């Protein structure tokens, strides 16, 4: 009984010595572990992580049971393996770091008023939604990338600069199946059709539905590598889809697409508008 009381007192004393900075420290470490696990589970690294765990287990076992040959082999493999992992998963690591940088991005400096900024975003959403609906009716394929915090300069360089106001007729002409730029993606930057005919990175996921074509795989890949919102119109079925954070959401119409884009882009317009008022 005394041992139990001593143990209970020890636990209580440990809790009493916890400082606020310790709680913040534990919280930050928990967030890092959570996002590392989420990153691994969402990417092809999940199977590789399992293999690394198996190697670490065998390395530990070789240490315990003095298995010198296995210990020598796996010790050297792990030393070289860390460098190999950085090279092998460079796209995934770059994507993760870009998203971290985008999340911590400073306040944008804009000259427009709050009301004007919000109205421009609303008009852009309406035009994009109407364009998607019109293209879906005609079974015309389309790929529209809306830039958010992550700059898409590399993607824009692969296409043709247009830098025009968002217009339904303009977008329909770009994606007309005889037009020279129709196979590429359109990039929307600052509520303008900034570039067309852009090439997007394809997703490397293994669990993508086999019925989905290159456009959908490119949309998912783009959303994996940035925080962009990507709209896809299927040429075969006329289905409107949205890719965000590596996930594809399907079966939108004009109203549901408009609502979804408003929800996704509301934070961006509010942030920019607030920045302009400071």
Strand percentage, roughly?
A: 5-15%
- Give the class from helix and strand content and strand pairing: alpha+beta
Strand order, biggest sheet?
2-4-3-1-5-6-7
Return the domain count: 2
The CATH architecture of the largest domain would be 3-Layer(aba) Sandwich
| Shape label | elongated
Sheet with most strands: 7 strands, mixed
List unreliable stretches of 5+ residues: 106-113, 270-278
The Rg value, from CA coordinates, equals 25 Å
CATH class of the largest domain: Alpha Beta
CATH superfamily grouping of the largest domain: DNA integrity scanning protein, DisA, N-terminal domain
Could you report the average pLDDT, rounded to the nearest whole number? 81
Question: Could you state the oligomeric state of the chains shown?
Answer: single chain
How many helix segments? 10
Secondary structure blueprint with pairings:
Blueprint: H1 2-16, H2 20-42, H3 45-64, H4 68-88, H5 90-103, H6 114-137, E1 142-146, H7 153-157, E2 160-165, H8 168-174, E3 185-189, E4 192-198, H9 214-225, E5 229-233, E6 240-244, E7 247-252, H10 254-277
Parallel strand pairs: 1-3
Antiparallel strand pairs: 1-5, 2-4, 3-4, 5-6, 6-7
Helix pairs in contact: 3-4, 6-8, 6-10
